[in-house]
Specification:
- This protein is α+β, with helices and mostly antiparallel strands.
- The protein folds into 2 domains: 81 residues, SH3 type barrels; 218 residues, Porin, CATH 2.40.160.
- It is built from 3 helices and 20 strands.
- The strands form 3 sheets. An 8-stranded antiparallel β-barrel has the order 7-9-10-12-13-15-16-20. The protein has a 6-stranded antiparallel β-sheet with strand order 4-3-2-1-5-6, with no helix packed on it.
- Strand 1 and strand 2 form a beta hairpin.
- The longest helix has 39 residues.
- About 5% of the residues have low confidence.
Length: 350
């Protein structure tokens, strides 16, 4: 009797664990209608990973496409039904989301690069250079003014004219050149320029009844050019220059009439010039330039005169009254020169 009770207990235990074992299995139902007893390990986006239930401990890991599966019945009684239309929509949504992420990443990268590039380019805005230059004229002319009329009256000869237009004209300048944009193409420069004419730049002489006259004038110009420069090539090594300027002049020299010498004082005149040309940088520290322009500048003739109450006087074109003699430095010029560049710290802020 005891043996039967013991056998019955063992049978109940086996049935209990057998029922539990049966309940622990998952069933994959394929679209073809086939059923597979498995232990589902993972349900992924496109695949299902499982082990065969018959030998779960030693079974390798299998995979099956979700598109081939109709449903999974889990051991706990729950189910997963795979609707192809819903699954396709999910896949499309996931694909669209991935594309959007790629677009956003690309846009952010481009924007970041553009911003970085823009920041780098902004370093050129406000960049300044000190310019030290010198040059000389290839061509230089002066209008002379009413000096010719003065000589012609004294000689009573309308063919007498003063000599002018001596090419040797030297320039010296110092200025500051500032970048106006982010790519180094547009520049603005302000200079102080000293111009010295050749000795006896304007001179003339004549002999008349009872005597003769000899004149000679030299000029010193102090100019303030305001120059706009624009790059013409890719690297902005060649710059087009447009140069308006304010000019001031001091005249020296003298007038000899008979045996009397009248020395010119530093008489003052004001005017302007306008020039166009080009600058060509040959490196980081040196460049060449060329200017073709027209100067409008006159100075009055004023000389020392001990016979005058003020100690100074001027000659009159027509004698003792009327128009006084004026030296006209106006005329065309062509100059070439070289300049040195001293780079200053960039003032721009990022």
């Amino acid at each position: 009797m005891k043996i039967k009770k013991k056998s019955l207990l063992i049978l109940l235990i086996l049935l209990f664990f057998g029922a539990k074992t049966i309940d622990a299995q998952d069933i994959i139902i394929k679209k073809s209608g086939d059923e597979i007893k498995v232990k589902v390990i993972e349900v992924g986006t496109y695949e299902i990973k499982y082990k065969k239930f018959e030998n779960i401990e030693t079974s390798p890991l299998y995979t099956i496409l979700k598109n081939d599966v109709f449903m999974i019945k889990y051991a706990d009684g729950s189910k997963d039904v795979f609707n192809p239309e819903i699954q396709q929509q999910q896949q499309q949504q996931q694909q669209q989301q991935q594309e959007n992420n790629n677009i956003n990443t690309t846009s952010l990268s481009k924007y970041g690069n553009k911003q970085t590039s823009s920041n780098n380019q902004q370093n050129t805005t406000g960049q300044s250079k000190i310019i030290l230059g010198t040059g000389f004229s290839l061509r230089n002319s002066y209008n002379v003014g009413n000096v010719n009329a003065f000589l012609q009256r004294l000689a009573n000869d309308p063919t007498i004219i003063a000599d002018a237009g001596s090419p040797p004209l030297m320039t010296f300048n110092i200025g500051s050149r500032t970048c106006m944009d982010t790519i180094g193409k547009n520049w603005f420069e302000v200079d102080l320029q000293l111009v010295k004419t050749a000795p006896h730049a304007i001179w003339g002489s004549c002999v008349y009844y009872g005597g003769g006259v000899d004149i000679h004038f030299d000029g010193y110009f102090l100019n303030m050019p305001f120059t706009y420069l624009r790059g013409l090539d890719k690297n902005n090594h060649i710059l087009l220059a447009v140069e308006p300027a304010l000019d001031m002049a001091l005249v020296s020299g003298g007038v000899i009439t008979g045996s009397i010498v009248y020395n010119e004082t530093s008489s003052f005149g004001a005017g302007w010039h306008f020039a166009v040309g080009a600058d060509c940088t040959l490196g980081k520290f040196i460049g060449l330039n060329m200017r073709l322009g027209y100067r409008h500048l006159k100075t009055p003739e004023i000389h020392t005169d001990t016979g005058s109450s003020t100690g100074f006087s001027s000659f009159y074109v027509n004698g003792v009254s009327g128009e006084t003699v004026k030296v006209d430095w106006s005329g065309t010029y062509l100059t070439v020169g070289a300049y040195f560049i001293i780079n200053k710290k960039n003032k721009s802020r990022i």
